[in-house]
Amino acid sequence: MRLLIANLLLVLAFAGSSQVSARRTQDVTVKINTETAAKGGLKIRFASLVEDSRCPTDTNCVWAGNAKITVRVTRNGRSKLLTLNTMERGAAPVFAGYRFKLAGLTPEPRSNIRINRNGYEATIEITKVK
Domains in the chain and their CATH numbers? Predict the structure, then answer.
């Protein structure tokens, strides 16, 4: 009986922690040259596309490629310019107690289409750090 209660307590503890972590992360989508608000009083501006060497979706590549953007994050009057990559190398940047990761960039490149630089939209994953 004690073993059953101990297992039940463990299950409840882990279930509670997964709910907490789910609330700690949010995805924000922002178009290039625009700003959007996020939880925690954050404002995110997609400042520029630095590079887009991602493999076109209609070809086979040896390397997936990388897209690099800069975003300006503002909170409580402070701001910082962050560089984000689709192929993150190392730790994701942190500002004002939040970690920022480039979760996606659209449109995806195709071999026969030139993307208008004003048509990009970034999805940024924002995680509250402990």
Answer: 25-128 (2.60.98.10)
Cα–Cα nearest to 27, from 98, 75, 94, 90 = 98
Residue 7 parent element (H or E): helix 2-24
Is there a contact between 93 and 85 (Cβ–Cβ < 8 Å)?
no
Judged on CB neighbours under 10 Å (0-12, 13-18, 19+), 100 is buried
> What is the separation of C-alpha 2 from the centre of its chain, rounded to a whole number of angstroms?
43
Q: What is the pLDDT of residues 3-60, one digit of tens each?
A: 545 554 544 555 544 444 445 899 999 999 999 999 999 999 999 999 999 999 999 9
Rounded Cα gap, residues 51 and 120, in angstroms: 12
Q: Supply 102's token pair.
A: 């480039």
Q: What is the value of pTM for the model shown?
A: 0.78
First to last CA, the chain: 36
